[in-house]
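Hello, quick one for you while I still have it in my head. Could you read through the record and tell me how the tokens relate to the sequence? No rush at all, and the record is pasted right below.
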Amino acid sequence: MSKEVQMSIKMEPELRDQFMAVAATAHRPAAQIVRDLMRFYIARKESPNKTTIASMEELDQGKGKRFASADALFKDLGI
């Protein structure tokens, strides 16, 4: 069994209040959501290569190519 440790995070009071309200609305403990976000962040940084990460970040910013289907993507790639 792993040992849990505590962590303190400094943030704006407004951000904390908004986050806590959303967590309460979702009926999930805020700490669980933070752990999930941390796991997602780690997985996103470890799994894809730099090109994939750059493409994901472009899409997050509303840039980059989007495809209606896998077939359209493969056609664009010449596969």
About this structure: Residues 13-77 form one domain. The chain has a mean pLDDT of 88. The helical segments are 13-25, 30-46, 50-60, 70-77. DSSP finds four helices and no strands in the chain.
